[in-house]
Amino acid sequence: MKTGQILLVEDNPDDEALTVRALKRSSIPNEIVVVRDGVEAVDYLLGEGAFTSSPPPALPKVILLDLNLPKLDGLGVLRRIRADQRTRLIPVVILSSSDEEQDRLQAYSLGANSYVRKPVDFEEFLIAAAQLGRYWLLLNESPSSRNPYDRPSL
Amino acid sequence: MHFFQHLWDSGGFQPYGFCCNWNSGLLWLHVISDTLIALAYFAIAFILFTFARKRRDIPFNWLFLLFGVFIVACGSTYLMEVWNLRHAQYWLAGALEAATALISVGAAFAAARTIPALLRIPNLSEWTQANANLETLVAQRTQELATSNEALRQNRETLGLAQKAARMGAWVRDVSTGRSTWTSELEDLFGLEPGTISFQDTSQMWPNLVHPDDLPAVDKAVAEALQSVSAFSSEFRIIRPDGKLRWISARGNVIPDGAGRPNRMVGISIDVTEQKLAEEQFRDLNASLEFRVAERTRDLSNANKELESFSYSVSHDLRAPLRTIDGFSLALLEDCADKLDDLGKRHLQRIRAATQRMGQLIDDLLNLSRVTRAQLSSHTFDLSAVVSSVAHELQASQPERQVAWHIQPGLCVTGDPQLLRVAVENLLNNAWKYTSRRPTASIGFGKTDHNGFSAYFVKDDGAGFDPAHADRLFGAFQRLHSTAEFPGTGVGLATVQRVIHRHGGRIWAESAVDHGATFFFTIPEFAGARK
After folding, report:
1. Which tens digit of pLDDT belongs to each residue from B229-269?
2. C-alpha to C-alpha distance for B145 and B141, rounded to whole angstroms
3. ipTM of the assembly?
4. In terms of CB atoms within 10 Å, which end of chain A has fewer, N or C?
5. Which domains are present in chain A?
6. Residue ranges of B 339-358 with Cβ closer than 8 A to chain A
């Protein structure tokens, strides 16, 4: 996984399709993994639930997290990610329809790295997606390039 | 001793009878005359004594007594002469006469010395005159008394009327005897016959007059006033003989005797039933008002919560489908461009335009609701600086436009800086928008006097509006121009109005078509304190 994955947490298939389309249109080559609710997102990242038996996942380079999610909402997912040693440093970008101040404040308080409001105008959304991809996948340096699952053997 | 023996001695002298040759006729003449004279003298003396004793008020009363003694002495000398017709005790007679002489001289002296004082005693005509004067004086005084009695009567009448008018009566109570006197007006207040309580011990009646619930409090107030010899005041209900309940307010004072002990209580009592009823109504009204305010506050707070969750879901859920519509319209245009003719493409463009417009409407609505929900802060800040900053942003967005800004500097207000910035942005955006069709424009901001109070204004020389529609100006989604003419959602001015109203201010506009528009608004000084 030399370029790193993008984990997209999005329950709305339309939004999922549009986001994926926008990222692809912005010539971002990275693999996009999609999970459709908050519990699935946490299970995927922490190797729990349906993902227990699967080999430890490669941690995504960036998580694009919607706030309005079934089962566990985006803020709950964020809380779980930040509470776990393995995932607490992964960059999380909140992608939301809402620009309510309380959402932004809570997201940043819980350790979100960025908050982007999804514009209605798809052309604007394309621009936003392209900028996001470029910034988080190319420009931004992760805190650690080492995969925390690759522990040295005892 | 020798002298006294000598005094009773005839000494060999001849008695008077001898001188008369013991002629019995002559002797009897002397005896009878002298005896009568003596008796008459004694009688006069007795009369004088009696008079003096009975009229002790007469000045120089002692003079009568002195004359009495003098006359008795004189009378005794005549008796002595009768005695000496036979006995010739001339020494004794001489001694008697000497004593009489002494008394006579003394009396004469006393009389002489007293005469000037006696002369000063007024004579009868003077007495009469004095009497007449006195009578005149008495008549005059009687007249004065009648006049003041009449004045007193009028005063009493006026006082009575005043007491009646004030629904008030006066009372006085003797502390030691417990007897009270009430004015008839007070008796009337209590529903008693006039004269019922006049020097009357009211201790038996009192518990029947006062409402049993209030009696202990009244008695306590009276006892405390008596104890401390101080003013007394109490409000209580009475039950009149006709069964009617009235409220009485009694005030009085304890008047001490010389030793500082309570002697009398004096005071007034007023019928305050009407005030009490009004107070009660007022209290009821207040209570129900408070209840209603609490209810409204609860409703309002619920409505606010609902609004908040509504906006939240609008913010999240309403925008997502729009994005889908727009996104897939664009995808359609891009992915199936070869299958779509120009008409189809134009339709899709219309769909996208409408979607974006709806997105804008939602955003504006959210802003409007945010303005309503936001907690109002209070700061004093330079509104002119905010206006300048917004003006710079507008100018920077379209640098090619020729707009002359006239911003009166240094106008400070107290209010919520964020919300007032929103208001200013909307007003300036409007001015900027509606002057956009002019090659050159002028936009102003300042403070002016409007019917005695100061109002801020934003003035432009743009398209203006028909004042006939001014009432629709501040309604949400109300527009006086078509979107083709000037774009907009019609939420801006509704937002401005809400911001101003939340500050306790007023907003209004003046305009004429093609002659620009001026928006006035006020921000009360106390807006900050209202939070």
Report:
1. 889 899 999 999 888 899 999 999 999 888 888 888 999 99
2. 6
3. 0.73
4. C
5. 10-138 (3.40.50.2300)
6. 352, 355-356, 358
